């Protein structure tokens, strides 16, 4: 898995690149639908041609196996 681990709070972070804002927003909406389905919500930052996704579990104070699974599922959204 090629997600970066950052501190304060400990979390998984990855930035996805897209050719324009529309495709970035479409991806962010797919991540949002995944989050709702799994009842586990990331921090999303949407910019022109980029979406940064950050997964961590607030109640656990860091990264859990659920966050790692959500990162894998997020990567799989690119296959669509």
TrEMBL record:
The name this protein goes by in its record:
4a-hydroxytetrahydrobiopterin dehydratase
Q: What is its EC number?
A: 4.2.1.96
**What is the catalytic activity of this protein?**
(4aS,6R)-4a-hydroxy-L-erythro-5,6,7,8-tetrahydrobiopterin = (6R)-L-erythro-6,7-dihydrobiopterin + H2O
Species for this entry: Thermus thermophilus (strain ATCC 27634 / DSM 579 / HB8)
Entry-linked InterPro entries: PCD_sf, Pterin_deHydtase
SUPFAM superfamilies given for it? PCD-like (SSF55248)
Q: Give the similarity note.
A: Belongs to the pterin-4-alpha-carbinolamine dehydratase family.
> Which Pfam families does its entry note?
Pterin_4a (PF01329)
Keywords per UniProt: Lyase
Q: Provide the GO biological process annotations.
A: tetrahydrobiopterin biosynthetic process
Q: Which Gene3D superfamilies match?
A: Transcriptional coactivator/pterin dehydratase
Enzyme type, top EC level: lyase
Instruction: State the Gene Ontology terms under molecular function.
Output: 4-alpha-hydroxytetrahydrobiopterin dehydratase activity
